[in-house]
Write a structure and sequence with these properties.
heterodimer; A: about 280 residues; alpha/beta; 7-stranded mixed beta sheet; 6-stranded antiparallel beta sheet; B: about 350 residues; 8-stranded mixed beta sheet; 3-stranded antiparallel beta sheet; 11 helices; globular
Chain lengths: ~280, ~350
């Protein structure tokens, strides 16, 4: 829960490091003046003074509170300015806001986590959490898809996960683009779900990625037999105030910033055009 | 209940001016609008009907500095609290929506809360109706029954006074020499005025065959795929006037001032009719087309707020009817939506 007296005030934050992940994606290591402890799936508002603010879900370990990492794709005005940031620059953070991944439900259950493209960022934070509580989970499956190997976020780290004995993992790219080092699958992420080997009726699934990827992946999960109330989605909307007031991120009777961004599929499926 | 003469009321306003920034309605042509009180104002229009500008501007300001220099707390404002005179029932009804957004929510907006606690509201009965008035269709009477500190009914040479809050009781007590007991004929005069105004609004509702709110349930869901939206949006110029003047519209933009050295954030009114309102930087826009945004505006008012707060986010003030350069008429849209369901 947000504790500041003024919910619009950002906390002064120093940029500790900037890591170039792909040609369009960078990770920023941030240290807020007062620690911001988030739970996996929640988001923060990241602002550059004089430029503006945008929402991101941290990609780092939720158990670490003095610093946090945010992985950001350069797409718009604010993210372009963020990509110009250097070590020791001053920025602002607000939050954390919104709902989290309900990891406590996963105890003694089988869990499938599916990330797509930039959606790896929130999912990485979730996976760190799940690795910490791996002993409580019956089974952990990860499926990751990206457009091409060049844009494959956290590629080395995800490759290293393939050596984990307690993780069933497959990675894929839509097109290999002639990358000779790419030794994983080629095809949409929905094509590598057939061998998850899960008790789907009782298993949980978490999906985070671009809207079109989430739409088709959710469809596939339902076809496989996953229950609607066991599928969790991270919805991307124009979350601005973070506290359900500014009106920009409404989905049906919810605001993505306050009631989401993590939604149970059955809670939002009745609303029209959720994937747009 | 009290009575205050016109002369005493002028003195009362002078007294209020010490502790408050007093605003009262004046009339130019056919429009009434709030202006800052001075003793030179000869003809405030306390009665009649609502102003052109909505009351919300004194509570959820069009432009508010909400953060500066990363400091916690609120940027200090040097202004006094506002005392707003001649507020009408349709504006007061807007508080139900604004309060539900800014106060009765998981999070509190400290700026709005401050204004709500500190501003003084001296409301008044409507003494007539203009063509666009249809409050009764929304179940709102053309005279205040709640959310005011003091309410006035304009009589021949003074006002009948009703107090509606602790702050109202206190201020009348302190200045009790200005107030007297009303007599029976003054009380009767109030009833006559109220009946007369109700009749005038009812006449509007009949003339325009405006549906009443008991017919509104489900009109958005049942008309979601209707061609009414495209038809009604065909003349819309996306100016956002309907949002700006609406007593219930609450959407805003957080805007950071362009000074890279100094962090300063403004909260300014926004409009859901504008194309980029819900667009995300990646390009996805859930309401790409103008008619979808028009539908969204009605969905918010007649589906979202009834579901989350049990209120219709329209008070029948008719401001959007007057403000729309494209002549989109909320009464007509409602009529078409209801007709489609009950035909």
């Amino acid at each position: 829960m947000y504790t500041s007296k003024n919910p619009y005030r950002p906390v002064k934050t120093i940029v500790l490091d900037v890591i170039t992940e792909t040609p369009t994606i960078k990770t920023f290591v941030l240290q807020p003046e007062t620690p911001i402890s988030f739970e996996t799936g929640q988001f923060i508002e990241f602002s550059v003074p004089g430029c503006g603010e945008a929402p991101f879900t941290p990609s780092s370990r939720p158990s670490v509170s003095d610093t946090l990492e945010v992985t950001i794709m350069r797409v718009g005005k604010v993210t372009t300015r963020i990509h110009e940031l250097k070590k020791n620059d001053i920025v602002g953070l607000r939050g954390p806001f919104g709902s989290r991944y309900p990891v406590e439900l996963f105890k003694d259950k089988e869990v499938l986590v599916i990330g797509g493209g930039c959606g790896f960022a929130p999912v990485r934070s979730l996976m760190y959490k799940l690795f910490e509580i791996r002993g409580d989970l019956k089974k952990l499956v990860f499926r990751g898809g990206c457009r091409n190997p060049k844009e494959f976020l956290y590629r080395d780290e995800l490759e290293s996960w393939t050596n984990k004995n307690d993780l069933n993992i497959r990675l894929t790219v839509d097109k290999s683009d002639g990358d000779t080092v790419w030794k994983h699958d080629v095809g949409l992420v929905t094509t590598i779900l057939g061998d998850v080997g899960m008790d789907v009726k009782n298993g949980f699934a978490v999906v985070c990625g671009p809207p079109i990827m989430m739409k088709f992946t959710t469809g596939t999960l339902l076809d496989m037999g996953f229950r609607e109330d066991n599928i969790f989605l991270s919805m991307e909307k124009n979350m601005s105030c973070g506290i359900g007031k500014c009106g920009h991120c409404r989905i049906g009777t919810y605001y993505a910033c306050k009631d989401g961004p993590v939604f149970r599929y059955d809670a939002i499926k009745k609303f029209p055009n959720i994937w747009d | 209940m009290y009575y205050i003469s016109e002369n005493n009321f002028s003195r009362f306003l002078q007294i209020c001016d010490d502790d408050y920034d007093v605003f009262l309605p004046v009339k130019k042509g056919n429009n009434r609008f709030f202006t800052r009180y001075t003793q030179q104002i000869q003809q405030p229009v306390v009665g009649e009907v609502r102003t052109s500008d909505p009351l919300k501007a004194f509570f959820f300001r069009a432009r508010e500095k909400v953060a500066r220099d990363f400091e916690d707390g609120m940027p200090a404002e040097s202004r006094k609290p506002a005392c707003i005179v001649g507020v009408k029932a349709c504006d007061l009804a807007g508080f139900k929506v604004q309060d539900s957004v800014f106060i009765n929510n998981d999070y509190l907006d400290p700026f709005y809360k401050n204004e709500r606690e500190n501003n003084l509201i001296i409301s008044s009965d409507c003494t007539c109706a203009i063509d666009t008035c249809f409050c009764l269709a929304l179940g709102i009477k053309p005279y205040p029954i709640e959310n005011f500190d003091i309410n006035l009914t304009p009589l021949e040479n003074g006002y009948l006074v009703e107090v509606g809050s602790e702050a109202g009781i206190k201020i009348v007590e302190i200045h009790s020499q200005l107030f007297t007991e009303p007599n029976e004929s003054q009380k009767n005069e109030r009833d006559t005025i109220r009946e007369h105004t109700k009749d005038a609004v009812e006449k509007n509702i009949r003339n325009y065959t405006i549906p009443l709110k008991d017919k509104f349930e489900g009109i958005i869901e049942k008309n979601y795929e209707s061609d009414i939206w495209q038809d009604e949006a065909s003349t819309c110029v996306e100016c956002g006037a309907c949002n700006a003047i609406c007593p219930t519209c609450h959407c805003f933009l957080l805007y950071d001032q362009k000074d890279e050295k100094k962090m300063e954030r403004l909260r300014i009114w926004d409009s859901c009719m504008i194309k980029d309102f819900a667009r995300v930087a990646g390009g996805a826009n859930p309401r790409e087309k103008l008619w979808m945004r028009l539908r969204n505006r009605f969905e918010k008012k007649f589906d979202f707020f009834p579901k989350i707060a049990d209120i219709y986010a329209c008070t029948g003030c008719g401001r959007c009817v007057s403000a729309c350069p494209a002549k989109i008429d909320i009464r007509n849209v409602l009529k078409r939506l209801v007709h489609n369901v009950y035909k």
